[in-house]
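Hey,
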Amino acid sequence: MEDLSGYADDQIGAVVRNVHSDCKASLNRHVTLAPVIDGVEGTFQKLDNSKTPDPNRIKLVGNVPASGKVAGGILRHRGWRALSISLPALGKADTSILTPAELEVE
């Protein structure tokens, strides 16, 4: 939540590499991910055109007919779903606190 407007783009970019790496490691430690559609991005992906795809799983973009039924389209993003989530027990922790405040005692 820190205001980054006072930093130059190259300063932020250098830090983001570490933040991204740490976030990825944390996510991999607790969540097993898999693509929603296991296809190659940029290629045509067939869909079951007998029914409208579940909007929670597949977001149709572009020239979508009003019925929402399509034969397929170009895969722009494979999407992600959690196969498993393994978070540590919270015990009696207050789940509304995301990060505690810090006080330096002098």
